[in-house]
Amino acid sequence: MLGSFRQRGCKCPPGRKRCTCGAKWYYRYDITDPVTGKRKQKEIGGFRTKKEAEEAAKKIQYELQAGTYIEEKNITFEQFAKEWLDGYAAKVKVSTVRLRKCEINRLMGYFRHLKMKNITRKQYQDVLYDLKKKGLADKTIVGTHRAGRMIFKKAIELEVIKKDPTEFAFVPKTKKTIDELEQEEGIPKYLEKEELVRFLSVIPDHGMDVRDYPIFLTLAYTGMRVGELCALKWSDVDFDEQTIDITKTYYNPNNSIKEYTLLPPKTKRSKRIINVEQTILDELLKLKKMQTEVRMRYRDTYYDKGFVFAQMDKENAGYPIYPKLIGTRMKRLLKISGLNQSLSPHSLRHTHTSLLAEAGVSLEQIMDRLGHSNDETTRNIYLHITKPKKKEASHKFGQLMQGLL
Q: How far apart are CA 354 and CA 341, in angstroms?
């Protein structure tokens, strides 16, 4: 129920029809407290004229009658974002939480002390524009906007706010020149078959230690992610069935050998069993034998958690190798091989995709082996490799029908 309209602090002479001192108008209305069930009175003010207050009051009256009224909370963006992150962290991996924290911190610089209900669509859009002016990459701004969308969507769901300021916001993208578009390569870098052979052939003589060859051979012959390889344990390898079970991934943002976390795979499809060639198993057996010798040598300090690609030096013996170290070693070996040094361990995953496609393996089988249901990069590589074969099939059909019509 709407109450009275009144002006607070008016200093105009009695009898004057229009206020000229700038006093603000207020209105009152009654609502039922959803917690206690008791009726209470709310007051909304700050309007320049009585007409403005009446227009605002009509909207409240309509919401009360329609049952859509929401009493917005006086919580700040900082308070709500922290509450949201606590709930979010219980459902996702620690690596994802770390990413969201970085994205939220960018928004904190603009909204930290503002009340959630007072943040407007224009303010939010201006933030995205400002991040762009500061030179942040498109991908970074997209991530920041994604975090903002999740926070305000939850605020709507919990009836903390009435309107979502992110609803119609868009991320300003960098416009590429014609030259940039023409030079842009849609297919990621990977090694051709002959290049992979050359890369692997230099490792026995130029690798840093005995792990290098089995590491890069496994990456190239299985297509597994480097984090999955670092987390691999001997219990995941079935020498009789010739399979490797992918059940976890390695996480270590600080590249500290002794401070790491094993996380669930990237997606549900990432948990999989890979059939492997005997060539890989033979190399792993050699590694296991040498690892046994290291474990006996440092039996008192060995970190015995069963990692396949464990460290072998005295100080860190038994701890799993980490992705950055693999990347550094690969760059060195690429240089020795005379190959593209910008390639990364993940490029071996792309290499595996290309060679499977060249061998005639279906896209569905490749997706299953790599552990994902839909990946544009993999799809692009597959289509790129199989395009000549499709043309060949069309040409053969044309030859078959030639002279029959």
A: 19
